[in-house]
Amino acid sequence: FAEARETLMKGLQIDPSNLELMHLLVAVELEEKNITSAEKLVGEMEQMASGSHFAYMAAGDLAEAKGEQSAALTAYQNAWKVQASDRLGNILWSRMEKDTDQVREKFLQEWKQRLPASFQALTIEGLFRQSKGSNAAAIETYKRSLAINQRQPAVLNNLAWLQLEAGDLKNALQNASAA
User: I need a labelling partner for 67 at 20 to 30 A (CA). Which of 1, 34, 168, 177 fits?
Assistant: First the structure.
């Protein structure tokens, strides 16, 4: 982490207002359990660009590291409002386990709308459909995800399993082999 910190610090000497570099430095500090340093950086980010995607993300990461789940969720939701990303989608989805299916469905639809080329949103939707026993919908969703990114062994495996259960042996074997 020392080398990463040094590289990020050099980058910040060149461009001291680069929020992306600052967010990465916050991540390094948090990995090293340097909460005080991370807090200082997040404060600087909030002063420079309050309401920015990176400031919210860094605040969420800091709150998460401090065990402040509610504050982390709020920060990540604010970051999502400013700029959606697959990383944020995954973070927010992982916190929705206790939400109703309707709330989760609405979030998936928003994720797909805001990031139409996201294979991750489709993969999560496929898993969600499969968990609810909507296997035909899961198969179609997995296929759409693989159309965007073919290198997903878990998706290929899930698709093969569902195709086998549906009696589609040829495609099941093909997808199992590809996995």
Answer: 1
Cβ burial 146-155 (10 Å sphere, 16+ → b, else e): beeeeebeeb
CA 68 to chain centre: 19
Name the nearest CA neighbour of 19 among 83, 86, 72: 83
Residue type, 161: W
Half-sphere exposure of 16 (CA within 13 A, CB side): 4
- The tens digit of pLDDT for each residue in 76-113 reads 999 999 999 999 999 999 999 899 999 999 999 999 99
Q: Kindly report, residue by residue over 147-158, the tens digit of the pLDDT.
A: 999 999 999 999
| Cα–Cα distance for residue pair 82/158, rounded to 1 Å | 33
- Kindly state the tokens that stand for 90: 């995954």
> What's the gap between Cα 136 and its chain centre?
25
Helices (H), the chain: 2-14, 19-31, 35-49, 53-65, 69-82, 86-94, 101-114, 119-131, 135-148, 153-165, 169-178
